[in-house]
Each structure stands twice: as C-alpha cells, then as structure tokens.
Amino acid sequence: MPDFRNVGFLTGILLLFVGVMMLLPLGVSYCYGDGDSNAIIWSMIITVVTGIALLFLRRKKKELGLREGFAVVTFSWVAAALAGALPFYLSGAIPTFTDSLFESMSGFTTTGASILGAHNPIESIPHGILFWRSLTHWLGGMGIILLSLAVLPMLGVGGMQLFRAEVPGPTKDKLTPRIKDTAKILWMVYLSFSVLEILLLWLGGMNLFDSACHTFGTMATGGFSTKSASIGYYDSRFIQYVIIIFMFIAGTNFALHYLFLFRGRIGRYWSSREFRFFFFLVWAFTLLLVIHALITRPGTGLETSFRESLFQVNAILTTTGYGTTDWEVWGAFPQILLVMMMFVGGMAGSTGGGVKVIRVQVLLAQIKIELSRLIHPNAVMPLRIGDKLIDDGIVRNVLAFLLAFAIILTVSTAVLSAMGIDMVTSFGAAIASLSNIGPGLGEVGPTDNYGWMPVAAKWVLIPLMMLGRLEVFTVLILFSRHFWRR
C-alpha cells in the first residue's frame, strides 16, 4: 500500500509550482487588458491554497518507495491538468469543465488536440488565456524530460532504459549524480533552445507573443497555435524552416543535447544508433512524400513540395502536430505514411510522444532474430542494437509495452466507434491522443478540432493522452492488485 501522505505532499509541491507559473499569463493579461485577469488570479489562489494544504500531509524521515513513485507521477499529472483547466473554465473562454480539462490535459501532455474551432475560434480567446494554454505545453514538455531521464528509469519503466542500454553516454557519462543537478542542467538546455527559437521567430516576422507561444508548442512537441490556420497562417518560408529545425531538436534525446552543449561531444549524436535511425526516418519519409507530390501535384514546385513534406514529417514524427497545409487532401499514400509515423514518435528522452524510436528498433531486431531461429532453432541469438547487447528483461518490457499500446488503441477505437463516430475518425482520434500528436484522421484531421465530439468521447480521450504521455505502464500499474498489497 503506497504512503499517500507523501504522495500528497509531493503533489502539493507541483501545484505550488503550477500556481506560481500562472503569474506569467497574469502579466500578459494585464499587458493586453482582455479582461481575463480575475479568472487567472482566482485560478492561482485555488491552486496555491490546495498545494499548501497538501504540504501538511508530509511524513518526516520517510523515503519514497516504488509504489509512491508511480503514484506521484500519475497523480501529479492529474492534479496539474485539473489546475490548468481552471483559467479556461473560470474565464468563460471554454464554457464547460469537460472541455477545459480536455484542453488542459492536452496541453500538459503536449498532445495538442484542441476543442477550439469554428464555433469558438482560437483568435477570440483572450491573450492571457492563450498564453497559459501554450505555457502548459512548455511546462509539460520539461516535465516529460525530467521524468524520462531521471524518474521513470528508477521505477523500471520508460524509454530511457533502452537509451542507457544502447548508448553508454548517460551511464558512463552520467549527466550528474543527483537528480536535482540533472534537473538544473536540463532546464538550462531547454530554456536556452526556447530563447533562441523565440528570437528567431521574432526576427522572422512574428510578434513577441506569437513567437513565445509557438516556441512553447515546438520545444514541447505540443502544437498549440495562436492561429486557427496554425503555422500556415504566416506563409513564411523562414518561419517554417525555423520550426522544422526546432521540432527535430525537440524530438531528439536531450541527454545528447547536453553532451554536445556542455561537453562538446557532437559525435555523441551520430554514435547513437537511435539518433541515426531517427535521422534516417525523417529523410526517408520526406523523400517518399516529395516524390509522391512531384508525381501527383507537379504544379506545386520542388521547393514547396520539399518544405511541406519535411515540415509535416517532422510535425508528425516528433508528435508536434503543427501544420502548414491540409495533408488529408494529398491522397491515401501520404496518409498511410503519416499514420506509420504516428506510431513511431520521437527519441527516448525527448519531448516527443509515440512508442519511441528505440522501441521500434528493438522490435525490428527481435523480428530478425525470430526469422533466423526458423533456420537455426538451436542457435543462441542475443539481441543487439549495433554492438550493444540488450538485456532480455528490456526486450520483454518492450514487447509487453507494444502489445499494451496496441490493445489500448484497439479498444479505445472500438469504444469511440460505439458512440456513433465513424471508424476512420475513431482510429485517428485514438492514435492522435495515445501518441500525443493532436491532429488525427477524418473529422479530427489537421484542419479540424475535437470540440464537436460527444462528452463521453472526450472522457475516453483525456486518460488516453495521459496513458501515452506517461509510458502506459506508469498509469496501468495503479490498477494492478499487486500495487495495493503490502
């Protein structure tokens, strides 16, 4: 049985942090004078008071165990989403609490699925609320990096276990021996990239407000935009290429960024088999889309086809979800490629969602071994990624994760279909939520939104976003009877 007093204490610390961060949209609200400041103030008061109340639950001299670790990760994300929904709901920008929670969970999990659309356009939302909406992305993105690099491996789950098995960097060359110091370093890397992107977008013609909001969405691979037409609104090659670069950066393991920026080890990128495979996927999918575009849409032009293809490949593969065009009109073949990318996602230790590149590599390597065993049934064939041996326990973890992912996707698609939603849209919404992408297929495509969906469907997608963001098992373990036994 987990010690919920310590779980509550740590959740309270998180709520205090979320409440303090509401000062930033409050400042934006005062600058623009849109009348949303009172809602932000009340949201901040409720969040901070709740956080302070939870601090009194702490038990002294009580170490955090595995059970408490799993509980803290899950409950903290739920608490953050609930607190994050308050500014949307209290301001009236999003009139129902279900929609407010959907938007907040989508923000903190960096999914980018939105209920805002034709009947409630993004441009009609007050600036302070819009800033908070994008800020939830940025906060959630940093939270995911800290979880994947520092917390989840300690609990025995998460893609970074695979990264550590495949690349010696974070084990032999640990970032720091203490999580506190690691957090500071990662915040510095994350903040540095964010400041750089804000400046570049500002130089490219965006105003400072839009530059910050789109940077939050890019670095967190979230995709919330301040415009209904997303990045396509700006019609700027420079802006699109800047966002392409930073989407790729955000989809790359931040431990590699640290080794480059702080230790000058640029070779770590290419020595990582996962990075090389990720790099290959980006350019392979881009090349296929460009060739298809030149054949089916010859009037588009080479540069435009290349830019649109490269942008959408990075947006989907890194699970950012930004758009410059409606790729649903490209035809069936590009959509199939994009769906394949939705499953893969970014690298372990990045802000990207999906099953992660390294898990796909392990799966492909295991398939190769099973094919070889058909010819050589008595041979001993350990699984390797490059020259690194992958432990059998990690292989089992990967296969179980992928099976759980597939089952959850199938069941959730069936449940959504039972609500009268067509199969393509049901699958698109399920995979977009579970992989934290945002735009899906059918009626939730790149130019659509989730606002029209039944309330029950939104309550299916809300936990799907969290399941995908927290590596599935971190949440599912709470429903196991073993978790509650002493």
Overall description:
The chain has 486 residues and is an all-alpha fold. The protein is 67% helix and 1% strand. The chain is built from 22 helices and two strands. The chain has a two-stranded antiparallel sheet. Helix 4 packs across helix 5 and helix 14 crosses helix 15. It is globular, with a radius of gyration of 22 Å. About 3% of the residues have low confidence.
Report Rg. Answer: 22 Å
- SSE order: HHHHHHHHHHHHHHHHHEEHHHHH
Poorly predicted ranges (pLDDT <50, ≥5 residues)?
Answer: 159-173
* Strand line-up in the sheet with most strands: 1-2
Largest sheet, if any? 2 strands, antiparallel
The number of strands is 2
Give a quick rundown of the structure.
The protein is mostly helical. The protein has helices at residues 4-21, 23-32, 37-55, 66-91, 97-108, 127-155, 160-166, 169-172, 179-203, 208-219, 237-250, 254-263, 267-271, 273-296, 302-317, 332-344, 357-375, 392-418, 423-434, 455-469, 473-476, 481-484, and strands spanning 384-385, 388-389.
Observed structural traits:
486 residues, mainly alpha, two-stranded antiparallel ribbon, 2 strands
Write the SSE topology.
Blueprint: H1 4-21, H2 23-32, H3 37-55, H4 66-91, H5 97-108, H6 127-155, H7 160-166, H8 169-172, H9 179-203, H10 208-219, H11 237-250, H12 254-263, H13 267-271, H14 273-296, H15 302-317, H16 332-344, H17 357-375, E1 384-385, E2 388-389, H18 392-418, H19 423-434, H20 455-469, H21 473-476, H22 481-484
Antiparallel strand pairs: 1-2
